Amino acid sequence: MSFSRRAALWLLIAAGAATAGERRRALIVVLDGVRRDTFEQTYAGGALPGFSRILGSALWYDRAESVLPSVTMAGQSSIFTGTPPARHGILGNQWFDRATGRAYDYVSAGTAPCLYAFTWFGSECRDGLLNRHLLAPTLYEAATAAGLSSAVVFHPVWRGATRAVLPGILDALTFLQGADVDFEAFDRRMAQHAISLVTSDGQPDLLTLYFAGADSIAHGHGIASQPPYLASVIDPLIDRMANALEAQDPDWRASTMIVVTADHGRTDAVANPEDRTLVRDLTAAIARAGYAGDQIRLAINGGMAYVYLKNGDSWAQLPPPEKAAAVVREIGADAVLANSVAYARLRQESDSPRAGDLVVFLKPGHYFGNTGLGSHHGNADALDLAVPLVIARPGGPAGHTALDAGITRIAATVAAFLGFAADGADPALEIPPP
Ligand SMILES: [Zn+2]
User: Fold this and answer.
1) Staple 344 to which of 176, 289, 360, 413, CB 3.0 to 4.6 Å?
2) Model's pTM, two decimal places?
3) How far is the CA of 269 from the centre of ligand 1 (A)?
4) How far is the CA of 67 from the centre of ligand 1 (A)?
C-alpha cells in the first residue's frame, strides 16, 4: 500500500465515512446536452430500464445547474475539476489567447481531434488540448495522488487518470463521415471500449463514460429527438455496461456511487431573423466605437460572446478602459442589436483573465447562428442551465431534493465518497436529512 493510499484510508476512518477495507468505487455517466426535464420525463415514462437498473433508488437534485457559458467544453471541464470556467480557464468552446494571438474553437473539425491527442494536428495535441489548457487540478489527479485507479473513456478531460481510452484511428474511421461525426457510432464505440476495459481489467475505482450523441442529434433535430435516442441507443448500452460490471462483481452497486449528469441543458430554436446577422451587427457596433475589423475578435459560445479588442497593434496589452466602455455603450445603443442582445458588460474581477474585454449576453431564446432549426444552448437562461444530476449512493437517500446543486460540486462529492480531497473544488453536494 502506498503512503498516499494509507493516508487516504486514515482520512476515511477519521471521517467515519467507511470501515477500513471496504472498497468504494464511482461511476460517472455524462450525457452531453440533455436537459434535466428531458432525462427525468423519459426515465419516469419507463423508457430507460438500463438507467433504472443502475440508478435504482437514487437522489435527484431538482435544481441542478450547469455553468456559464452553458456550452460543452466549459461544462465538461467544470464537472471534472469542480470549478467554474473563471477558475479552470476553459471559457467555452471558443476563446482567444491574447498572449499568442491565437483563437481556439475546440469543437471545430480542425481542432476537435486535438482534444483526443491526434498528434498530427500539432505537438500541443499530445496530451489533449483541453488537458493542456486547464488551469485547475482534475478529479483524476486527486484520485491518482490518493492511490486510486481511474479510467476515462472518450471524454476530452482525462489529465491525471491512470487510464485514458481515446478514440483511435479505427474508431475515427467508424464515426468520421468527411468533416461530420456520426455521434451514434461515437457512443457505440465508446461503450464497446468501456465494456472491454471492465471485462479485461475489472472495475476501476473511478470510471467515466461520455455519451456525446444526444447533444448532436438535438442540435439538428430539436429536443424531441432526444428521448428516442436515449431509449434506443444509450439505454441499451448502459444495460450492457451493467452486465459487464455485474459479471466482474455481482454486488458492484453495493460499493459504487453512480452519478448521471450533463454538461448543459438546451432550448428548441425559434426563428429570430436578427440572430442570423448578429455577428455582422455586433462587429459593426464595435467598429463605430473606433475599432477596425482586424482589431476585433469574437469568441462565440451559443447565447453569449467574448469580445477581445486589440490595443493599437498589440493583442498582449489590454485596451484602455474608456475605449472598452465606449464599445459597451455602442452595443447598448444599437437598435437592431436590442432585439437579441440582453446586455454587454466589461470584464470583471471575477472573470477569468482569459475572458474578453467585454462579455455579451443574448436574450433568452437568442443564439449566434440561430436559423430557427433544431435546438441550441449557451444562454444564461434557466433552460440552458438545467441539467440532470442523479446520484445513487450505496445505502444513501433516494427521492427528490430542492437543495442547491451545480455541476461544480460533483467532483468533491465523488472524492469524499472515495475517501480523498479534491483540493480547490467547490464543496460537495449536500445530502438532505433522512
Ligand atoms: Zn455539450
Assistant:
1) 360
2) 0.94
3) 16
4) 12
Separation of CA 263 and ligand 1 centre (Å): 5
Q: What is the distance in A from the centroid of ligand 1 to the CA of 375?
A: 12
Ligand 1 centroid – CA 153 distance (Å): 16
* CATH number for the segment(s) 273-372: 3.30.1360
Architecture per CATH, domain 3-268+379-418, reads as 3-Layer(aba) Sandwich (3.40)
Q: Give Cβ neighbours of residue 228 (< 8 Å, ≥ 6 apart).
A: none
Please give the pLDDT value at position 21: 60
Cα separation of 101 and 115, whole Å? 20
Mean pLDDT of successive 10-residue stretches along the chain, which has 434 residues = 44 44 92 98 98 96 98 98 98 96 92 85 86 98 98 98 93 79 94 98 98 96 98 98 98 97 98 95 97 96 97 94 97 97 97 96 96 96 97 95 98 98 97 83
Cα 191 to ligand 1 centroid, rounded to whole Å? 18
235 and 39 Cβ atoms separated by less than 8 Å? no
Instruction: Quote the ligand 1 centre to 72 CA distance (angstroms).
Output: 3
User: In degrees to the nearest 10, what's the CA dihedral of 215, 118, 299, 319?
Assistant: 160
- What is the domain partition of the chain in residue ranges? 3-268+379-418, 273-372
For ligand 1, the distance from its centroid to the CA atom of residue 16, given in whole angstroms, is: 37
The cell for 79 is 464537472
What is the whole-number distance in angstroms between the Cα of residue 265 and the centre of ligand 1? Answer: 8
